[in-house]
Write a structure and sequence with these properties.
Length: 280
């Protein structure tokens, strides 16, 4: 195994049942592809304990990130069997701060947090204000503990970057950013990082963003089990090399260069302990 070519998946949901039920195999396949560490994000307080337990089981691979996502499950499915979701509420935030405080010494970031103004979920101006309030509280909590933040911003890229700027947020990673390249560049000007999923294979807007942003502001992610390279398949951290390959094509550089720089970025922006991966 070439120690100089390791990769880091900076955004994966390993507590999801699709991955958790065979977690040893998932991690073994990642290691076989030179994916040496993964930031495991959470979406609600029920996932906090499982994420920390994963860290305890796999301390050389998993770095847990705890946070409340702007979109939450209703616990019911529609007629097609698809899970119905809604905008986050203040009730969802109950207990989140105290739980993050309790695990602050072992987590790698506060996340997945952010804004999601998708009309099918975020239906009112009040929904938007609640999302902004909960994001603000979690950013301030991260600042209190000098922790990075792992940020969601679907259909709210400009608003998310503006709020983060107002809060003087530091060590910001915007995952799966779907906004304009010009908006992403505003984030770069603030010192933010952007992680790229396999969507870069087929989305011209993401390709344009990757082309516009400097390589030293990019990282690799899968957002697994979502965004699989093959429709309907279950994504895994082992597929993070796909993002790497397409970034290399767009930037016209060698994959090894992309691996090196994105992994260095992950260590800097996410404060990954050196015990998780060896680069020399």
């Amino acid at each position: 195994m070439d120690e100089h070519c390791v990769m880091v998946d900076v955004h994966t949901h390993l507590t999801d049942d699709k991955l958790f039920q065979n977690i040893s195999g998932v991690i073994d396949r990642a290691l076989a592809k030179n994916v040496r560490a993964a930031l495991v994000v959470t979406e609600n307080i029920k996932e906090f304990e499982p994420a920390v337990e994963l860290y305890k089981r796999f301390p050389k691979f998993v770095l847990p990130c705890l946070g409340l996502h702007p979109i939450q499950s209703t616990g019911i499915s529609d007629e097609s069997g698809i899970e119905v979701k809604r905008s986050v509420s203040l009730e969802d935030y109950a207990g989140v701060e105290s739980a993050i405080e309790r695990f602050a010494d072992v987590i790698g970031a506060v996340g997945e947090i952010g804004l999601d103004f998708s009309p099918r979920f975020c239906k009112t101006a009040y929904d938007k204000e609640v999302q902004k309030l909960i994001l603000t509280k979690q950013v301030q909590l991260a600042q209190k503990h000098s922790l990075p933040i792992n940020v969601h911003s679907r259909s709210a890229g400009k608003q998310t970057i503006q709020l983060l700027k107002e809060l003087d947020a530091r060590h910001v990673l915007l995952h799966a950013f779907d906004g304009r390249a010009s908006t992403a560049l505003e984030g770069v000007a603030n010192g933010y990082y952007f992680s790229v999923t396999a969507s870069v294979c087929r989305d011209p807007q993401i390709q344009k963003m990757v082309k516009s942003l400097p390589l030293d502001r990019l990282m690799l992610e899968t957002d697994s089990p979502a965004i699989a390279p093959v429709k309907g398949a279950i994504n895994e951290p082992s597929n993070v090399s796909i993002s790497c390959e397409y970034i290399a094509r767009i930037k016209k550089v060698e994959m090894e260069e992309v691996k090196r720089i994105t992994t260095e970025n992950a260590f800097i922006a996410s404060d990954i302990p050196l015990s998780l991966a060896c680069l020399s």
